Amino acid sequence: MRALCLMALGLFLAACASLQLGEWPGEVVSFDRMEVREPLNVRLTSSRTFGLPAGRVVCLLWVDEQGRVQQVRLVEESGSRELDGAVVRGARDMRFQPWASDGQPRAVSVVMPVNFSKRVELPLKGVPDIVPGIRGSSPAAP
Predict the structure, then answer these.
(1) Fewest CB within 10 angstroms: 3, 54, 58, 66, which?
(2) What percent of the chain has pLDDT over 90?
(3) pTM
């Protein structure tokens, strides 16, 4: 887990250099340190039930003092526009317990990795749940 956090931090620093973050919060928090109130809900736009994309997406979230996601940026793309877009759309609706520093709620930048893999189970209904706290669904799911 520590290696994952260090890698995510490295990706964040690379994103800062290339994205010109401007007014983004300077305090960076790894996703596993945040308390999720409303998890990521990924909805794929196609109605495919077989051959769902697999990959890894890393997002940078701007979480405000109330725990709402204000902005989402891709730091690492999966190679699937559909998967990347679904993660970005779903991340906008996430909610967190506000991050506190010195007893005061603060806006933070959160590095959130999301991993998807294909399952061989048939019939495949929607996006499989891969990461704890993240649920998947698609228009084809019951």
Answers:
(1) 3
(2) 44
(3) 0.66
